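Hi C.,

You asked whether I'd gotten around to modeling the 145-residue construct. I have! Everything is below, sequence then structure, no commentary in between.
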Amino acid sequence: MVAAFLLLAAMAFGQANQVVGFWLTAEGDSQVEITRKSDNKYYGRIVWLKDPLNDNGRPKVDDKNPDKSKHNTPILGLELLKGFAYNSSKKEWANGTIYDPNNGKTYDCYMWLDGNNTLKIKGFVLGMRFLGRETTWTRERAKRE
């Protein structure tokens, strides 16, 4: 019985970690690395930008953030996904948030795999999953340079 429990726990852990890796965003202009941190939750940060510099030749910054003290934070390295926990019964990562640096807003969010190489992400507002926007990211084997 203990062996069966350990096997089930290992399988659930393996499923949860399927989201770990590099993902190309729907627009193809950035790559996000999703990792599992010590709190056993999943986070994602921007590790590559197609156009990392603004019109003045300087690194793009988080100038749409409502917190003005973060306006000089570089977009490259910015953590977009925060605090996702894997729900094995629904086969989704939920109870996290996604930040959109294009408008400076943070949304409640959940995500799920559609096959091994497609990640569906849905950000929503007011706790209502049907009020939101869905996007699709594609798995990549390595960090872009």
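If it helps when you're writing up: Confidence is low (pLDDT under 50) at residues 2-13.

Thanks,
B.
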